[in-house]
Amino acid sequence: MGEEYKAKIFKSGNSLALRLPKALGLADGEEVVVIPHNDGSFSFWKQDQSQEILLGLYGSMSAGFMSDGRGDVDQADRDWGDDGGATAAA
Question: Where is this region: Disordered (predicted)?
Fold first, then answer.
């Protein structure tokens, strides 16, 4: 695992901002993707690395992943009838 950094959250207008150390190698104005996890932690990466991150997930699941299927997934009935003209013209 790499070096550990601390960051500080502060108020910026009506939002919260996260001040990250320059040592992380992010440039001013660079966009990042932030993913919150159920345990309260977050993952983030540079937006231009999204494809690399996604491809890195390939093969990372255990051999038994979903071996029992998806389980019971309730699906709501859908009305495929008239949508009030919301369908885009072809």
Answer: 69-90
